[in-house]
Amino acid sequence: MKKLTPLALALLLTACGESDVQQVRTWMKEVESQTQPTVKPLAEPKTFFPFAYVAGDALDPFNASKLLTELAKSRAGGAQAPDQNRRKEFLESFPLDAMKMVGTMEKNNLVNGLLQIDRTVYQVKKGQYVGQNYGLITAVTDDAITVREIVQDAAGDWVERMSKLELQESKESSK
Fold first, then answer.
1. What pLDDT, in 10s, does the model give residues 138-161?
2. Residue 99: inside a domain, yes or no?
3. Residue 153: which CATH number?
4. Which residues touch 128 (CB under 8 Å, ≥6 apart)?
5. CB neighbour list of residue 76: distance below 8 Å, 6 or more residues apart
């Protein structure tokens, strides 16, 4: 009897499971037959009205006179030509790429930069000229010296170019 009890219990549970599935299927068929789908009708397409473009008195974007006008405006807003009559400072005889910033020094609450050219160190400050392209020092900080240069572009116009001389780390090794 003991062996039949688990077997009988499994058969009873299987029979109960089948009847529940059948009930669910019956309910689904009933709901499906009663449900009517509702679809909203599509909106009518908009009517397209063609538009004829008339340039009228508008300026042609490829007109040479317009191009010349724009070039004249851009030249007027460009950098001013450097003062050719100004007496050049000593550090203007060296190119910027030959200079290395090696440090700073504070003197009278003013930060001065230290530039090395070859084996000589020079002291520079804001407002001083350096480099061969009319470079004016605009800022001296602990890690860089900012220089505004005035150079000629391919068209011969004077343009500004910003350069930075950044602090160079010492290459000496401790022995």
1. 999 999 999 999 988 877 778 889
2. yes
3. 2.30.30.830
4. 89, 91, 136, 137
5. none
